[in-house]
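pls design
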């Protein structure tokens, strides 16, 4: 197994850009840019978590805009049901907090993957440099 095959397998197992070309051993193929789909999906997830956080504020609250007498009835019902609305509100806040934590973890994972990709690129450059010069030989 040569260095290209090893690097190709590492790229393929980490699902890094260019992994298919590296695994197939195609020489001279330019590296693909970082996957924008991943960034797009993270941005969509961040927007969804933000929406969840904003909508959590409305859980268990009396909706606004009812006519006068109906508004009074809605407030009365709301005051009679604290045993029902408090757990629902707590659950909504907990769900939003879990979504925030998951988003933060995903961002950490993406940063780690980018660091791995940068280190792998650095190692690939070192291998290319060694191939360009005289390779050290361990044979007597």
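designed seq:
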């Amino acid at each position: 197994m040569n260095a290209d095959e090893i690097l190709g397998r590492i790229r393929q197992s980490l699902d890094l850009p260019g992994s298919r070309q590296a695994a197939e051993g195609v020489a001279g193929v330019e590296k693909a840019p970082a996957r924008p789909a991943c960034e797009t999906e993270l941005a969509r997830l961040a927007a969804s978590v933000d929406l969840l956080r904003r909508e959590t504020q409305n859980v268990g609250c009396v909706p606004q805009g009812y006519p006068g007498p109906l508004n009074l009835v809605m407030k009365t019902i709301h005051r009679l049901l604290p045993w029902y609305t408090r757990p629902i509100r707590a659950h909504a806040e907990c769900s939003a907090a879990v979504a925030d934590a998951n988003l933060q973890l995903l961002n950490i994972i993406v940063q780690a993957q980018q660091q791995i990709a940068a280190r792998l690129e650095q190692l690939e450059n070192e291998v290319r440099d060694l191939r360009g010069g005289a390779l050290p030989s361990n044979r007597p």
